[in-house]
Structures are given as structure tokens and as C-alpha cells.
Amino acid sequence: MNRVQNHAILTAYDTSASPIRIIVVKDIVMKNGWLELFSPPIFSKSGSQMVLILSQEQGNGDSYRHVVLLQLEENAKDDPVTKGLFVVSELLAWNHEDNLIYYLANTDNDSSVQHLYSISPVKRKPHCITCSLKSKHHADVPCAYNRADFSKDASHYVMTCAGPDVPQVSIYNKNEKLKIHWTDNQELVDYLDKTDAVRIRKMTFDVAGGFKANVMLRLPPNLDESGSTKYPMVVNVYGGPDTFQVVDRFVLDWGSYLASNKSIIYATIDGRGSGLKGDKMLFSGYRKLGTVEIEDQINVTRLIQNTLSYVDSSRTAIWGWSYGGYAAGMALATDSQKVFKCGISVAPVTDWALYDSIYTERFMGLPTLEDNLKGYEAAQLLKKYEGLRDKEYYLIHGTYDDNVHYQQSMMWSKVLEVNDILFRQQSYPDEDHSLGLVRPHLYHSLENFLDECFIEKM
């Protein structure tokens, strides 16, 4: 693969020949995006074929990641095993005895689910193993988001029903016969059944380019939907390329706490650049980080405020960590509509030229005059300082961060200070990117900041 990761050559080696023969199986070029080999290839029993995940154009003119069969020969042609307007997320196993390939994918109609499928490379008729599976805890709740791990010979698999109900892990044989419920987290289920559960609402909104953004809201248990009571809202953003948050996984985190204990609506938005919906939406932010994904966070939040009468548009915050910290800062700084009252950046990237090259160059190309220097400069949070004037902003970073280096926040705070822009800052000595040893202090500090942001000033 080349440095900017849009060109790869797949080769095989015939070790029976003397000298060893090199076979160029496939030369792959992505013209309008980057290239990732998402799962390691799996080989046929004879070793003459392999399957892997590659983007394949579908009837609607968009491309989606699918299981593709390749012969181990010169310039092999793609032979798609799966097809449709869905994304294959992981290739799991090839049962050679039954000639079945197993994989995880969402569906044509719902990108928030993930099901386990099997398919014969001969008959090409996919069989969904988990589509009719129900939660062990509540018979009316489907296993909508699943993971699986197979034995070496693919005769058994460990299946995790990861949501939306409390996760449960079971072991099945290849005939889909349950062998054992390994763990069901019943103690957690019993506890949650005695509490007022956070309500989940999913929505979609149109965004530029003809795409749709998925939204998930975690709502207070006793939400008054009449509009007579206004609830503050926190938007949790990540926004990095090929990531997603709006899926049917079970989650119990700070957002659950805010919704259940503080009566705060907690929102996540998958806009342009997110995964699971095809290459056109995925690559819409290619070589221009800090643009379309930020626009969608702002505009979709405004649409939520205008659509739901119980959302308090004067008390809406945005926060994120890592890429999400960058996105939160960019959204607050470029928000000319006053959608957000305040924002929080935890461990943000502020200059992409100083971040991990293998990550950044995949999405941005090279920071050179000949390539995409202007794109790097436009993506700098460092240059958006004026947009934070007279806004409430909280910057947090660990000094021992080995992922997004502390330098990023120091440069950012210097720019803000030199330009007399007031903000709140917290540095955690000797803490890495996870801030693992100071989580109580971190979340109490975040809560304190939100309390101050949401207080209704006279």
C-alpha cells in the first residue's frame, strides 16, 4: 500500500515454484477516497481462492463494502459473494466442510443493526442467523446488534447479543443449536428493571448532498413531551471518518447518567463522513477534515431543536473526546447560528500536521504544496480562535497523552490566551489519553461546567 493509502497491490507467492513465483492478484486504486483492507482475507481449503471485503458498486450508483471472492491468479476479477445496499463490517470464518462463509453486516433498511450471516460462495443466498433472535431477558426485544467469534474449524461460535438489551453471551454449534448460555448479566438486568429506564428515540434528518444523518436521543425517563417543560441537551460528538455512534448497542455511561439523574437529553449524530451507509457518504469529507462533519453536527442539532418542542435551544452543549474534542471545538467556534451555548474538548487535535501520520494522511493526503497543504491549514482548530470569543469553552488534556500529544492543547491554549479569549482549562499531570486514573474528578468537573452553562441567568 502507498503512503496516502489509496493504492494497494495484493500479491500471492507460489512457494512450490523455483524460484518462488510472485502472483499479482489485484491492483486496487481508490480514486475518491482511501483504501482499507477491513478484515484479513480467509482462504479456501485448497488455497486457490480467498475472500475479503472490498467496495463494490451497486445499482444505485453508490458503493458498499461486500464479501468478494478472488482466485489466486494474475489480475483476478472481483467475484462479489454478497450484494445490496448494506455494509459488510467483518469477515469471520469459512467453514470448509459445509462451504459456508460467515460475516457481520447491517441491512438495506437499517444501518444501526449488525447481524450474523452465512452464505455459500456457490449458491450466493445469504442466511441471517440472528435476525429472528430475541433477548434472553425480554422476549419482545430483538438481538439487533451482534458479534461473533468462531472456533478454528468454524464448527462452533460464541455469539454476543450486544444490544439494545443488556448483553448476553452464548455458544452455538454450526447448526445454530444453542449449547450453553455463557453469561447473561442477570444481576444487572434485575437492577435495571427496578429503575426508571432512559428512553431511546431514533430520528433521521436530511443533510447536504442528498444524505441522511442518523440521530439517537437518550431521553429522561419521565420526559414531558408537551413542550411545557424545556430540557437542556448535550450533543456527544466523535465525527471521525468511518466511525458511528447511532447503533443498537447497549450503553450505560455518562450520557445515561445525565439523562436519568439530571434530566438532560443526550444526543449523538452520525452525519457525513460516518460509516455504515456507503462510500459516497463516507468519502464526502475526504481531504477536508473539519468541514462537512462539523456542519452536520451544527445543522442537525438546530433541526432537533426546531423539531422537538421540549428541547431547550438556549441550553444546548456539545462535547467530545479525541477526534470528538476537535469536532466539539470546531463546532462551537464555527457556530454562527448560536446553536450551542457551550462546548467541551477533551484531548483534541488542534493541528492535523502534528498528529499520527498514518491516520491523518489516509484522510487528508500530504501536508505539502504539491498535495493538500491548504486542506491542512483550513482544518486547523488553531485558526478558529475568534469564533470562541464570548463563548463558554472547557479544554481538558492529560500531560502524558501518547495518542493526541499534550502539545496540541498547549498550542491551542496559547493562541486563545494571546488573543484574550477567556476559557476554562484542566490539565491532568501524568495522565494518558484515557484519563483512566482521574475519571471521578473528570466527570465531576464536566458536570460542574454543564451546571454553570445551563443555569438560567437572570
UniProtKB/TrEMBL annotation:
**Keyword Hydrolase among UniProt keywords:** yes
> How is this protein annotated for GO cellular component?
endomembrane system; plasma membrane
Q: Entry's InterPro entries?
A: AB_hydrolase_fold (IPR029058), Peptidase_S9_cat (IPR001375), Peptidase_S9B_N (IPR002469), Serine_Prot_S9B/DPPIV (IPR050278)
- Print the keywords alphabetically: Aminopeptidase, Glycoprotein, Hydrolase, Membrane, Protease, Serine protease, Signal-anchor, Transmembrane, Transmembrane helix
A biological process (GO) of this protein is: proteolysis
Where does this chain mainly localize? membrane
Q: Where in the cell is it found?
A: Endomembrane system; Membrane
- Does the keyword Protease belong to this entry? yes
Q: Name one Pfam family in it.
A: DPPIV_N
SUPFAM superfamilies annotated for this entry? alpha/beta-Hydrolases, DPP6 N-terminal domain-like
Q: How does it sit in the membrane?
A: Single-pass membrane protein; Single-pass type II membrane protein
Dipeptidylpeptidase IV N-terminal domain boundaries: 1-167
Which residue intervals define the domain Peptidase S9 prolyl oligopeptidase catalytic in the entry? Answer: 253-454
Gene Ontology MF: a single term: aminopeptidase activity
PANTHER family documented for this protein: DIPEPTIDYL PEPTIDASE 10, ISOFORM B (PTHR11731:SF200), PROTEASE FAMILY S9B,C DIPEPTIDYL-PEPTIDASE IV-RELATED (PTHR11731)
UniProt family annotation: Belongs to the peptidase S9B family. DPPIV subfamily.
Provide the protein name: Venom dipeptidyl peptidase 4
Taxonomic lineage from the root: Eukaryota, Metazoa, Ecdysozoa, Arthropoda, Hexapoda
